[in-house]
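Justification of resources, computational component.

The compute hours requested in this renewal are based largely on the per-chain cost of generating structure records like the one below. Each record pairs the submitted sequence with a full structure-token output. That output is archived, and it is also reused by downstream analysis tasks.
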Amino acid sequence: MRKSLLIAVLVLSLVCGVTCHAGSLAVDRQSVYQTGRDFVKLGMYKNALEQFSSISGYADSGSWRFYCQGMIELQNANDFEGIGYISDAVSCVDNALRYFEMLANISFEDSESLKKYCTARRYELKGLSQTALDLYASLLGVLDSGDRYWNIVGGKALPTQAPISTVPPVLTPIPAHVTRKAATYFGPGDSYLEQTLVSVSADKTVGVCGREGSYYLIEMTSSTGKLRAWAPTIRIQRDADGAIAEVATSSKKATVTQAAEALYGPGKDYISSGVTLAEGQAVTAFESEGFYTMIEYADKSSGKALRLWFPTAQLYIQN
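The structure output for this chain reads:
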């Protein structure tokens, strides 16, 4: 009798353990799913894609993956269009349309409107302005359809195709780690604003992107994206060989021509600084990487300078 009771208790414990574990997994997947949805609301589609990809098969995460991939392609199209790479922008719009077409047989978000939007973008990029105008008129409220409609009405032309050599490469981080806990800054020294978003403790893995005096420009990853900051060279140990580029070797005066948010690195997969620079803001411009330029400006609240990355297409850089 006692043996039978013991077996029953063990079976019940196992069933409870499996049920609790399954419940925990469901909660974890739901949390990841919700985080992905939150990133979508913020327009951080690369971060959202990572979340949905990690829970493949859960709810409608597969559909959200297609949606995010399409939106990333549209963001890439905007970057190319901004500097006059019209043919590359067309390719990105075509890629976006393919992703949205994968959602054609299900009712998902505004995929039908987005497919129509991609068609309008393609007509606009190909110079068929009237056809694009008619489509944008039926899409007011979808992404930037309204702005594009009025740009065409006002005769605002797209940028001229630029030489391929005008887009500089993005620095490739060299694997490294932190030897001792270090204070990092948004510039090469403690006269710049201190970086407090990511803790830089001993043995933390980082990437070395460049060097400026006795400081390395390092790249780190957090739960919300990537971030760059400067750390003392004596606190960083490289784990691989490779030439380290000298950064900020020259500077030029620049002016913001269109308000935009500055980032903690040269791309949309880097964390937003939360700083929006207004049109007419004077800054100092350094090297460009991809579609972004490293800039320096004074933070009014702290009184210290900091360096961030800003869309090159929205800067007037004096020669």
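Residues 225 and 269 are 6 Å apart (CA to CA). The radius of gyration is 24 Å.
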